[in-house]
Write a structure and sequence with these properties.
Number of domains: 2
Shape: flat
CATH topology of the largest domain: Rossmann fold
CATH superfamily of the largest domain: Glucose-6-phosphate isomerase like protein, domain 1
Number of helices: 7
Oligomer: single chain
CATH architecture of the largest domain: 3-Layer(aba) Sandwich
Strand content: 5-15%
Largest sheet: 5 strands, parallel
Structural class: alpha/beta
CATH class of the largest domain: Alpha Beta
Radius of gyration: 28 Å
Number of strands: 8
Helix content: 55-70%
Order of helices and strands: HEEEHEHEHHEHEEH
Strand order of the largest sheet: 5-4-6-7-8
């Protein structure tokens, strides 16, 4: 996997932090300097941290696991939704549903409810409802789609969370921490990096910065997905060979058995 380009991070404004008065002292190891009252993030450390996080998501994708993208802030939601869709990963860009992780079975029931409504529409039973009931079901379907449509394929808890702005997505971080789900996040100079397993020190407000970091993560996931497909193909081919070999061996046994019977019959006739 290619290393992160320092100049690309610089051009995208990944190094711009918040004003000094808003900073979190725990982000001090990732701050390069102060300029005009604003903190500047050390991009040399950002490069290292991005490569570390990219390797993690690549390994997860390689094993066939899901990474849940989370970004509900205005300047990030559309970018994150597009990037997550491109690598077939679940995402939350509207409101974080309370208990999304800690009460996952209930969330799955809501998703199943949405699927049931879809089935009603498909098989025609939806048309048998009264006009008022159809309106209620349609509104319910639209609400479920808005909040849960992007996680409809998430059949079990995600292997990790990829978050933009840990302050805004504090509830998501807390739930992941409670369940020991790794959290990968873009962390700005005003945020506390302590609850984050894989910190990416970066500007989490600029659209260019968010887009670049998400693009790097998605490229790593694409690599992992490709490796996963290759491994599945190899496994399938190996199983096919084993099956063919066992069938050949079984056929050989049957042939030898028939030959022995014939030879035994011939001996009896000679006697």
């Amino acid at each position: 996997m290619s290393k992160t380009n320092f100049q690309e991070l610089l051009d995208a404004g990944v190094h711009f932090g918040h004003k000094k008065r808003k900073w979190s002292p725990k982000m001090a190891p990732y701050i390069f300097m102060e300029k005009n009252g604003n903190h500047i993030i050390d991009l040399h450390k950002t490069v290292i941290k991005i490569d570390e996080a990219a390797n993690v998501v690549r390994q997860l994708a390689r094993s066939g696991r899901k990474v849940l993208f989370v970004a509900t802030k205005k300047q990030a939601k559309d970018i994150v939704a597009e990037k997550a869709k491109s690598v077939n990963m679940p995402y939350v860009t509207e409101r974080w549903p309370g208990g999304m992780l800690t009460n996952f079975p209930t969330i799955r029931k809501a998703v199943k409810k949405m699927n049931t409504i879809d089935k009603m529409i498909t098989d025609g039973s939806f048309e048998t409802l009264a006009k008022r009931e159809r309106l209620q079901v349609t509104r319910q379907r639209a609400k479920l789609e808005k909040n849960l449509g992007s996680i409809a394929d998430l059949n079990r808890l995600p292997a990790a969370l990829l978050i933009v702005d840990v302050q805004k997505e504090n509830n998501a971080v807390k739930e992941a921490n409670r369940l020991n789900i790794p959290v990968i996040a873009m962390v700005d100079t005003c945020c506390d990096p302590t609850p984050i397993d894989f910190v990416i020190p970066a500007n989490d407000d600029a659209a260019t910065s968010i887009a670049l970091v998400m693009d790097i993560m998605c490229k790593a996931i694409e690599e992992g997905n490709a490796e996963h497909r290759q491994e599945k193909e190899k496994t399938g081919a190996a199983q096919g060979k084993d099956k063919e070999g066992s069938e050949t061996a079984e056929g050989g046994k049957r042939l030898r058995s028939r030959r022995n019977k014939i030879e035994g019959t011939e001996k009896i006739e000679e006697e």
